[in-house]
Design a protein that fits this description.
5-stranded antiparallel sheet; Jelly Rolls; 4-stranded antiparallel sheet; alpha+beta; sequence-specific DNA binding; Arc Repressor Mutant, subunit A
């Protein structure tokens, strides 16, 4: 689909690589199942579920086909900051106070949003008929529908950048997410140089080395205490591939992770 409306189709179980939700995202599961792993909770979205995920959230998603083998399909509408600013200016909506509420809002029961989503379904099979202009119109329609709910104005129109937060708390909540240092810095409300400096003051170590060792400690715990297999652990603790994890584990502890699983 065009621009800020994305149609996704995964035929097999798949870990997604996208871990930072850069824009507010309205998501609908057409078929299959999606597991969303946030820092402190897991949310399972089934066929027919509609949810709004807040911008600048860290999340790991695992997509599953349904029990009949149908692929996991979803429609995602990205409510970009520039679009929201333009909407706010046009409709004289002032900058809202900082939003501290939930990172995910379940909107499955909203009949108007359901009808809106259903109006997008025909374009899945005929994407050539879904123009950029139509995408803009449908995005504005989504905003209008969301604003019928009293809590949505602050959610959508807190257009501020992340502010400087407690670094130790932030890192201990999010160390399992495999994102770049620049992304960690931005989400903590810091420049990269300030992030590295503050990190050194808190942990007396570099971010890269501390994160690697902390993830390996978590992997060791999951293998020894939870009896999980190394191949089932590496991704959940922030490693992109099993080979890299295995080499790092042996370098850190002096033995292979597989020896713990016996």
């Amino acid at each position: 689909m065009e621009d800020n409306i994305l149609f996704s189709c995964e035929k097999k179980k798949k870990f997604t690589s996208e871990q930072v939700v850069l824009e507010h995202t309205l998501s609908y599961v057409v078929s299959g199942k999606v597991e969303l792993h946030f820092a402190n909770k897991k949310v399972v979205a089934q066929k027919g579920n509609v949810a709004l995920i807040r911008k600048n959230e860290l999340v790991k998603a695992i997509k599953y086909p349904d029990e009949n083998g149908l692929p996991c399909k979803s429609i995602n509408i990205f409510l970009a900051q520039d679009v929201l600013r333009a909407y706010a200016k046009l409709n004289k909506i002032e900058q809202q106070e900082k939003y501290f509420g939930t990172s995910l809002i379940d909107l499955t029961g909203d009949k108007f949003l359901k009808s809106y989503i259903e109006s997008l379904l025909p374009y899945i099979d005929e994407p050539n008929k879904f123009s950029s202009k139509l995408a803009q119109i449908k995005t504005m329609e989504a905003i209008e529908l969301l604003l019928t709910k009293s809590t949505m104005k602050q959610f959508l129109f807190d257009l501020s950048e992340p502010y400087k937060i407690d670094l130790e708390k932030f890192i201990n909540q999010n160390f399992l997410f495999n994102i770049s240092m620049s992304e960690f810095a931005k989400l903590s409300g810091r420049s990269l140089s300030t992030f590295k400096r503050d990190f050194k003051q808190v942990y007396n170590d570099t971010p890269g080395r501390w994160l690697r060792n902390r993830r390996l400690e978590e992997a060791k715990y999951l293998i020894t205490e939870k009896q999980l297999k190394p191949v089932d652990v590496y991704y959940s603790v922030g490693f992109e591939n099993f080979s890299h994890f295995s080499n790092a584990f042996k370098l850190r502890f002096g033995f292979n992770a597989s020896t713990l699983a016996i």
